[in-house]
Specification:
370 residues, alpha/beta, five-stranded mixed β-sheet, 14 helices, DUF373
């Protein structure tokens, strides 16, 4: 049996007439269509109901087993309306007295009502969908529904409307720039904002930024020391950059001629490496503290601050040697000390981890009770 389902997602029939839904049967559907047309001749659901009657009569004349019904949702739309349509479809299917397999032909008045098709398909196989649109307004509702979906979708709205809004602002901003005698600056800033936005959307930086903010918020509420360590480390990095720039200025001022690239890099590194090392140690200690509190600390994690110190010693010695601040003996000693510090810390914590892991794996033997 073929079930012709006329879908009225926003329940115009129930709101504008005295009919209760679902409406089942050819004569009942025709009466409901006439009542809706009388109440509101311009309602497109009138055409849907009459189309359902027309399909029913056409198939009946060819001796096919067919039934027609009207199912409705509610004026709220979205999920609640789809659920009500699903419930009414269940009611219609339960009222059919037939041993044949039932399939459905869905009749709608546009794309909005067709959003309920997955709900209907979950209850009965669908043979086809018939869209009824007034010829003078063909595709108008579909276009309206498409624009409505674009405006309601936050992701699409941000992707489409924000660049469009920036483009529309270019002309008034250019006028303002002309009045202020700075047209190039205004257009440059506008173009830069548009470019940065498109690049961020293309690379997905917005989602990453949202994730980072959410992670920072959770860390703050959870009392994690990592976020404090990151703040302190950021300040240390800034101070290190300033210190390195000051050291470079000092070296350039004392130099008789031009300063080469190796010397410039060495000056920047010599002035900033201790600050950068302090930032690395701070962040590693913060991470170690959080891992210990969470019960996930492993011995090898303790290598991090020692590695940072070892690298800092090596870089400090190398940069100082290029600046003629130390001799070759000091450089060799620092390289050896940095290497040994890293190796010794690695071996020490590896042995400690192995030792304590063996102790934890050994369960104490209990004497058997008599």
């Amino acid at each position: 049996m073929l079930l012709v389902l006329c879908v009225d997602l926003d329940d115009d029939l129930g709101r504008k007439t005295d009919f209760t839904t679902p409406v089942i049967g050819r004569d009942a559907v025709e009466k409901a269509a006439v009542a809706l047309a009388t109440a509101d001749p311009e309602d497109s659901d009138v055409n849907v109901a009459f189309q359902g009657v027309h399909i029913y009569d056409d198939l009946t004349s060819r001796n096919e087993s067919v039934e027609v019904a009207i199912v409705t949702g509610n004026e709220d739309g979205d999920v609640d309306a789809n659920r009500e349509v699903g419930d009414e479809v269940d009611t219609v299917l339960a009222s059919l007295s037939t041993a044949e397999d039932v399939t459905a032909l869905v009749v709608t008045d546009g794309a909005q009502d067709e959003s309920v098709i997955p709900v209907i398909r979950s209850r009965v196989p669908i043979d086809g969908v018939r869209r009824v649109v007034v010829r003078q307004a063909q595709n108008l509702e579909s276009m309206y529904y498409t624009f409505k979906q674009v405006l309601n979708d936050p992701e699409t709205r941000g992707t489409v409307l924000i660049p469009l809004g920036i483009l529309l602002l270019i002309y008034p901003l250019a006028l303002i720039g002309t009045v202020l005698e700075m047209p190039g600056v205004v257009l440059g800033v506008t173009s830069t904002l548009l470019g940065l936005y498109l690049i961020s959307r293309g690379l997905g930086l917005g989602e990453r930024l949202d994730d980072a903010v959410e992670s920072a918020r959770r860390s703050l509420y959870a009392g994690r020391t990592t976020i404090l360590a990151y703040v302190v480390a950021t300040a240390l990095l800034v101070l290190g950059g300033v210190s390195g720039a000051n050291e470079l200025e000092r070296v350039q001022a004392e130099a008789a001629g031009e300063v080469g690239v190796p010397v410039m890099l060495s000056a920047l590194l010599y002035g900033s490496v201790q600050w950068f090392a302090a930032a690395g140690v701070t962040t590693s200690l913060g991470q170690i503290t959080d891992e210990y509190i969470a019960g996930r600390l492993e011995w090898r994690y303790l290598n991090a601050p020692f590695y940072v110190i070892s690298i800092a010693i090596v870089l400090y010695a190398v940069s100082a040697y290029f600046l003629d601040a130390v001799g070759l003996t000091f450089l060799a000693t620092a390289l050896t000390a940095g290497t040994l510090l890293g190796i010794v810390s690695t071996l020490a914590f590896a042995v400690a981890e192995s030792h304590f892991s063996e102790e934890e794996s050994e369960e104490p033997h209990r004497p058997d009770s008599a």
